[in-house]
From TrEMBL:
Record's keyword annotation contains Cell cycle: no
GO molecular function annotations of the record: ATP binding; ATP hydrolysis activity
Alphabetical list of CDD domains matching this protein: ABC_NrtD_SsuB_transporters (cd03293)
Top-level taxon: Bacteria
UniProt record similarity statement: Belongs to the ABC transporter superfamily.
Name assigned to this protein: ABC transporter ATP-binding protein
A Pfam family recorded for this sequence: ABC_tran
Alphabetic keyword roster: ATP-binding, Nucleotide-binding, Transport
Signal peptide positions (record): none
Phosphoprotein among keywords: no
Organism annotation: Sphingomonas desiccabilis
Length: 269
């Protein structure tokens, strides 16, 4: 974590309590099968995973192991073939305002301004117009885009567009934020900066977050736990708990030891 991030008020945070009553997300024996060329292909095999309220968890594994499929099932865009996804104790049967998904591509509407893109995420939220605009302004300030509220996506850098997408994902106050490689398309300098920014935003909002990434160091910098998945069919190979207080430093020897442990698991996939 950079000194600049500390100056912005980021506070060290430890892993949340293991109290099962605080579990906001449960994947219970989840399996997923697709049909390819009229033949069944098993993408996921018995995924058991729980996220506690306010926790930040990263999913990591080889391409095709089902990481994005897990996010889509939590978001209600896919249904499990077997097992159950529960949010707040209730089965997920479709999309809902309690979950928000941010993709690798920002997917902002090119004909709408930044503030209009964020406002559209409140379309189904039962709030008055003034309150919606207040929330939009609040979340643009949170991601540092107040001065670009009336800019259009084509006028933004890649990092700014992703910050706008994160503001859109958070503006409806979801219980769970799902991030599908949101920093994967960025250059290394912008990516490093946005890792710090993402942690600052998470600390400010306290939203339970599940993120897919291919970057082991990124996962260890951000997450309370890193879930390593086997190749297809995806299974939970190991869950690595990152018991290091934040802010974390990229050159920390303890972080390097954890990185070698996770890389060792990935090399054996």
């Amino acid at each position: 974590m950079t000194h600049a991030a500390e100056q912005r008020g980021f506070r060290p945070r430890l892993v949340p309590s293991a109290d099962p009553e605080s579990e906001v997300l449960v994947l219970d024996g989840v399996e997923k099968e697709f049909t390819v060329d009229r033949r069944p292909v098993q993408a996921l095999a018995r995924i058991d995973l729980q996220l506690r309220r306010g926790e930040f968890v990263c999913l990591i594994g080889a391409s095709g192991c089902g990481k994005s499929t897990i996010l889509r099932m939590i978001a209600g865009l896919e249904r499990p073939t077997a097992g159950e996804v529960r949010v707040g104790g209730r089965p997920v049967t479709g999309p809902g305002l309690d979950r928000s998904l941010v993709f690798q591509e920002h997917r902002l509407l090119p004909w709408a301004s930044v503030e209009q893109n964020v406002y559209l995420a409140l379309d189904a939220v039962p709030l008055g117009r003034a309150e919606k605009w207040r929330r939009v302004a609040e979340h643009l300030a949170l991601v540092g885009l107040t001065d670009f509220a009336r800019a259009y996506p084509a006028q933004l850098s890649g990092g700014m567009a992703q910050r706008a997408a994160i503001a859109r994902g958070l503006v409806a106050n979801p219980a769970i934020l799902l991030l599908d490689e949101p920093l994967g398309a960025l250059d290394s300098l912008t990516r490093s900066y946005l890792q710090d920014e993402l942690l600052r935003i998470w600390e400010a909002e306290g939203t339970t977050t599940l993120m897919v990434t291919h970057d082991v160091e990124e996962a260890l910098l951000l997450a309370d736990r890193v879930v390593v998945l086997d190749p297809r069919p995806g299974r939970v190979r190991e869950i690595v708990r990152v018991d290091l207080p934040r802010p974390r430093r990229r050159g920390d020897p303890e972080l390097a030891t954890l990185k070698e442990r996770v890389l060792g698991e990935l090399r054996h996939l």
